[in-house]
Each structure stands twice: as structure tokens, then as C-alpha cells.
Amino acid sequence: MSRLLTLLSTVFARKLRNAQFSTMGSNGICVEDIDVFCSENCKIKDRTRVEGILRELIAGGTDRLQVVTDFDHTITKQKLENGQKVLTSFGIFDECKSLPPQFRTESRQLYDKYRPIEVDPCVPMPEKINSMIEWWRLSNELLKGFKFNPTEIDDVAVKFKDALRDGTHELFTQLNRQQVPVLVFSAGLGDSVVSILRHANVLLPNVKVVSNFLQYQDGILNGFQEKFIHAFNKNETALEGTEYYNLVHSRDHVILMGDSLGDAGMADGIPTSSHVLKIGFLFDHMH
């Protein structure tokens, strides 16, 4: 699945070179033209629809394109080559040495309670959303009243600068070269996301991170900056009124990548979105 990132670079490189696909003609591109789409690990519900979207994306070129992606277990791998688990953005924060023991304990209790609800496909969406709002509200209260040096996040994050999926650097570099906006939407901790992207040299001028960022008051942690981003409100309506929204709202061709059900709606709110290629990386409930 990680080769899909390289695939996206290849598709648009072909467009820019005016290259011809093997079966180009009246029907345009076919799924069989792209090796990774033929892998047994790649599942496509409607091949004809995917082919149609690919044709539109290629024909529209980079001026109409934007990329919207989750971060944890989408841009990052699940495990390193040595088998070590890749920490999530909040997991990186939890590794910081100066965090009070009580924070670690209570934060873990909240995770154990709400994470199963987040990933359970049988829980109704309204119940999921209410649970996520409650989770972030309680987490926000935990993140208040103690000193914290933000450089500690960098000290941990640098260990995972090589934990991005194969082809990420090439993809981001090419998208930046072609001035294609990349929106990284994360329900995790934005401070960690930015740190990893920066250490991996992919926090390029075309990359915008929308996430939960820490705020401080006189050197003391004071919860999150508004507004809270949880797994099921990650969409571009959160960008209304911002410079980034004005930049991308007319780009109606979207490549969307994520690893959860909530990520599937990250392109919601983009006016006149006509063609959205959704790529999911299976992580939970694999059987």
C-alpha cells in the first residue's frame, strides 16, 4: 500500500511529460496500466469509477489539484523496518520526560475508553462524534497547569523522521514543484506533526497542517488552541475564512488519503468538488 504514494508522483509526472499510457485511446487510462492497483493488497470497489476519476485528474492537470491527507498511519508507517512501532503524534508527546505521572495515567485511561469507540465500525456516527468531543474536552483539561518545554517534542520526533511511508519525500517534493497545495489534517497533536515533517524535510511551502496545537500561558501549558480537531470533524469547512481556504476552494480535483472512516470525509466542504480519489490505508479491524 505504501507504493501508492510513489504511484501518485508517477501519474502526474506522466501527465507533465505528455506521456502515453499503454491503453490510452477513447477509453483513456485503465486500472491495469498501474501495477500497484493490480496488487492483491489493493482493493477497489468500483474499478470503472476509479478509472474515470483518474482520467479527470490527469486531464485537469495540477492547476485544479489539491492533496488532503491524514497524518498518523497514513503519511507515517505503522512499523519501522526493525519492527519498532511508529508512535502517533500524541504518542510522541507522551514520551516527553517532563510530563507529570498523573497526566500519563489519566491520559492513558481516556485512550483506553474512547479509542475503541473511535475505530468500532458498528458504533453509530452520532455516538462516535459525541464521544470524540468528550474525549478532546477531557484531554484539554488534562493539558493545563504544568510547565512544559516544547523542544522535548523535537527530541522525540527526530527519532521518527524516517518513519514516513516510502515515496513521501518524492511525492511532496514534486507537488511543491508543481505548486499543488497539500493539506495535512490530523486529529492528533499538530506540534508533533509539524516537528516530524520538518525533520523529514517535507514541511515545504505548499504544505499546511491543520491539527490540535498546544497553547501556553506564561510558560505553563493551557490546553489546546481552538478549534479542536477530532476524527470526525476533519474537513475543509474548518478552514473557512482562512488564507488557505481561499487558496484551495476552487481546486475541485482532490487526492484524499487516510486510515479511518472519519478520514473519508476530509474533502467535505470543498465547493464544487467534482472528482475525489480516496485512498485508504487499512490499520484497524484487518480481519
UniProtKB/TrEMBL annotation:
Compartment(s): Cytoplasm
InterPro entries, alphabetized: HAD-like_sf, HAD_sf, Pyrimidine_nucleotidase_eu
Name of the molecule in the record: 5'-nucleotidase
Native source species: Phlebotomus papatasi
Catalytic activity reported: a ribonucleoside 5'-phosphate + H2O = a ribonucleoside + phosphate
Keywords: Cytoplasm, Hydrolase, Magnesium, Metal-binding, Nucleotide metabolism, Nucleotide-binding
A single BP term in Gene Ontology: nucleotide metabolic process
Enzyme class per UniProt: hydrolase
EC number: 3.1.3.5
One Pfam family named in its UniProt record: UMPH-1
The family this protein is said to belong to: Belongs to the pyrimidine 5'-nucleotidase family.
GO cellular component, one term: cytoplasm
GO molecular function: 5'-nucleotidase activity; magnesium ion binding; nucleotide binding
